Amino acid sequence: xxxxxxxxxxxxxxxxxxxxxxxxxxxxxxxxxxxxxxxxxxxxxxxxxxxxxxxxxxxxxxxxxxxxxxxxxxxxxxxxxxxxxxxxxxxxxxxxxxxxxxxxxxxxxxxxxxxxxxxxxxxxxxxxxxxxxxxxxxxxxxxxxxxxxxxxxxxxxxxxxxxxxxxxxxxxxxxxxxxxxxxxxxxxxxxxxxxxxxxxxxxxxxxxxxxxxxx
Length: 215
Description:
This protein is an all-alpha fold. It has one domain (2-214). Helices cover 87% and strands 0% of the residues. The longest helix is centred in the first third of the chain and has 29 residues, at 2-30. The radius of gyration is 19 Å and the shape is elongated. It comes from Tenacibaculum platacis. The chain crosses the membrane at residues 12-32, 52-72, 84-103, 123-143, 155-177, 183-203. InterPro entries: DUF4386 (IPR025495). Keywords: Membrane, Transmembrane, Transmembrane helix.
């Protein structure tokens, strides 16, 4: 179990950094909202970076499979049902998000048709909205496991609950009220709860590791 936690302390920051690069930085560089021509020109002018972004997105989702499997391994003794639920939600989210990378590749084959490029981008965005639902759902059983296992302070478990609410609210707003920026901004703030968990996991570590160090 201790070795698994140590592996997770390495994988978590790698996952977070690559994920932020793929899901936040790359779209900010290439996508110009409601401007297919500018978006297409951005891709043409820096195609290598765009392709690196696709690879980063794929790696992010692959880690989103590996990390929950490792978490299941350490938490299944705490509560097998919640651990299985956590794993199931993550394994549903990963292929949905991975499917979005197909549209990224399709963009590269239609650069002479800006409207089609933007259409592919929108399809990818919709796939990520669907994945966001499960990115939220998996944090609820993970939060319960964090609290029940006593590996983390209780507050960390509630931060995971807040993150789950944030992802679900974000998805709901994008589906039902796509123009309600204020609600979307609130949901984005709540997702920081997951970041707090990751930072605590990596910097402070689960109590089982700290107890070993003290001994």
